[in-house]
Write a structure and sequence with these properties.
23 strands, globular, single chain, 6-stranded mixed barrel, 7 helices, binds 2-acetamido-2-deoxy-beta-D-glucopyranose
């Protein structure tokens, strides 16, 4: 009898961990590089960045997104490709009402009128620039949510406009829908992590920056995430883990997101939680290719880091990035010799037990471009931004350590060794 009870408890406990594949897909940036449209667009983007001020607060940039997951909304379930954002709590999906830029009163956020900003906006907001082919493609490319086909759809309120402005684009939603959502989990056994009534924006307009992005919607797991607070009591532990593997192919499993525990198969159980200033950030004290850093590369003051799965690089203060590029023999644009061996990057952090050096293996810092050239995965923070002295660690970092996001009392981030 005792054994039977134990067995049942064990089975029950095991079901409270859900693991989902993150599929690696071609980013919008890579597609644009192939099409030869990236350089001109990137120039506009840099021009726009010049006009950012310290109000530049959200860091969403969708050009680099290359990990997506399957998410289902409604009954019967409608399937979508989703980008999971570790920094926001946004939740929106492209709606059936998404067609063309046909609104009489277009939503034109202030970026539309800044130098370089027009390409990010509805053709009706940008004088002198005609509609382009990509404007036509956006809605056609996306899977669209149809609330009339869902028996669990619920929206108690009158339709109301709800927009979400990002640094490089925006969405316009006419409804806030509520419906059942399901994340498809493969392990420890096949199942769904379900929220019975989640509320999300139904986007009827996506800015041109969403053309060719590989997702239909976005779900945020950042601080105060609605989704996480709703699944919290269904999980073994209030945490999720991101593990990104070393495979650089497209349309294959590029990593796993594990809700409710660490990923025991790929991550060491020794989690080192970091000292932090704000939710899900951590502090670094110096960063260098050298174990005895030159003064230039070492930091005068500790800096705050945010992890972002939507970035293909390590972003930091322009001065330090410049010296890191030089140390890696990259030119100003970050171009490197594809055969060059890149040294491991040492980063000093501080966890609960004191200072420690963590390492990004050099191989994770090399980006292969579609034209056969290579780049070092370093980028400067935009000038004038509130982020000027901060860092964003993207995919090279996520390939180096398992990243554990705990949301019990405080929202802290921890790292553990990848053990495969
Ligand atoms: C990946 O899948 C997309 C969509 O199905 C397809 O267009 C693309 O060609 C595929 N890429 C590769 C490298 O197989
Ligand atoms: C970082 O700086 C500390 C002291 O400022 C030094 O002890 C340590 O070796 C440095 N680490 C790296 C990786 O440069």
């Amino acid at each position: 009898m005792k054994l039977l009870i134990l067995f049942i408890v064990f089975r029950f406990a095991a079901a409270l961990v859900y693991q989902q594949s993150l599929i690696r897909v071609e980013s919008r940036k890579m597609k644009m590089m192939k099409a030869g449209t990236w350089d001109a667009y990137h120039k506009e983007k840099q021009t726009l960045q010049q006009s950012f001020d310290d109000k530049y607060q959200n860091m969403n940039d969708f050009d680099d997104v290359e990990y997506i997951a399957n998410l289902y909304i409604g009954t019967p379930p409608q399937a979508f490709k989703f980008y999971y954002d570790v920094n926001s709590q946004d939740f929106w999906v492209t709606d059936k009402s998404c067609e063309k830029f046909d609104s009489d009163i277009p939503h034109c956020p202030s970026i539309c009128y800044k130098p370089g900003g027009a390409v990010f906006c509805n053709p009706k907001c940008r004088q002198n620039i005609a509609k382009t082919e990509s404007d036509e493609r956006i809605c056609i490319q996306k899977a669209k949510y149809d609330s009339t086909k869902s028996s669990t759809f619920y929206h108690p309120n009158e339709p109301r406009e709800n927009n979400r402005d990002y640094e490089f684009g925006y969405i316009v939603a006419s409804f806030i829908g509520e419906d059942k959502i399901m994340l498809e989990a493969e392990a420890p056994k096949f199942g769904y992590l379900t929220v019975r009534l989640a509320s999300f924006l139904q986007a009827k307009e996506l800015s041109p920056t969403f053309a060719d992005t590989p997702f239909d919607g976005m779900l945020g797991f950042g601080p105060s995430s609605f989704f996480l607070s709703n699944v919290n009591n269904k999980l073994d532990k209030p945490m999720y883990t991101i593990y990104i593997n070393d495979i650089d192919d497209y349309n294959v499993t590029g990593g796993l997101i594990t809700f409710g525990d660490i990923d025991k198969e790929h991550c060491s159980s020794e989690i080192e939680y970091q000292s932090t200033l704000s939710q899900y950030t951590f502090m670094i004290y110096n960063i260098s290719f050298d174990t005895s850093p030159t003064e230039k590369q070492a930091m005068q003051i500790p800096s705050e880091v945010t992890v972002d799965i939507a970035r293909s690089s390590i972003m930091g203060p322009p001065e330090i990035i410049k010296s890191l590029k030089e140390a890696a023999n990259a030119n100003e644009d970050g171009k490197i010799d594809c055969d060059a061996e890149i040294k491991d990057l040492s980063i000093q952090v501080r966890n609960e037990n004191g200072f420690k050096i963590l390492t990004i293996p050099g191989k994770h810092l090399k980006i292969q471009n579609p034209d056969g050239s290579c780049n070092i995965a370093f980028e400067s923070m935009p000038p004038n931004s509130a982020f000027l002295n901060k860092w964003i660690f993207g995919v090279p970092w996520l390939k180096s350590y398992c990243n554990i996001f705990s949301f019990e009392n405080e929202q802290k981030i921890g790292f553990s060794k990848i053990i495969v």
